[in-house]
């Protein structure tokens, strides 16, 4: 099981989305739990990004909502972490 590590940018975007739509917040929370247990679950639609974001991954949390993240190794524990970078609509995060 990987650990989720949100960046400050992700936290701000999450709070903004959650405040705007409570149903979306519940869906986001479900997606984050699923990412923690299996980031490559088919329901998430996890895919590698290209171009300027080629080192990053994204997954879907609804029709027009994406979570952008990076898979990294924690230097202290040596375990793999999911660094949550941004969340929002397709146009906002890409």
Explain what you see.
The mean pLDDT is 92. The chain has 3 helices and 5 strands. The termini are far apart. The radius of gyration is 13 Å and the shape is globular. With 94 residues, it is of the alpha+beta class. It has a single domain (3-93), classed as 2-Layer Sandwich (YaeB-like fold), CATH 3.30.2310. The protein has helices at residues 8-20, 22-37, 90-93; strands spanning 3-6, 47-48, 57-60, 66-73, 80-88. The longest helix is centred in the N-terminal third of the chain and has 16 residues, at 22-37. Strand 2 (47-48) and strand 3 form a beta hairpin. Helices cover 35% and strands 29% of the residues. A 5-stranded mixed β-sheet has the order 1-5-4-3-2.
Short précis:
By secondary structure, this protein is of the alpha+beta class.
Strand and helix map with partners:
Blueprint: E1 3-6, H1 8-20, H2 22-37, E2 47-48, E3 57-60, E4 66-73, E5 80-88, H3 90-93
Parallel strand pairs: 1-5
Antiparallel strand pairs: 2-3, 3-4, 4-5
Helix pairs in contact: 1-2
Radius of gyration: 13 Å
Return the CATH topology: YaeB-like fold
Which structural class fits the helix and strand makeup? Answer: alpha+beta
CATH first level: Alpha Beta
Number of domains: 1
Q: Going by CATH, what is the homologous superfamily?
A: RelE-like
State the total count of DSSP E strands: 5
Per CATH, the architecture is: 2-Layer Sandwich
Average of pLDDT: 92
Order of helices and strands: EHHEEEEH
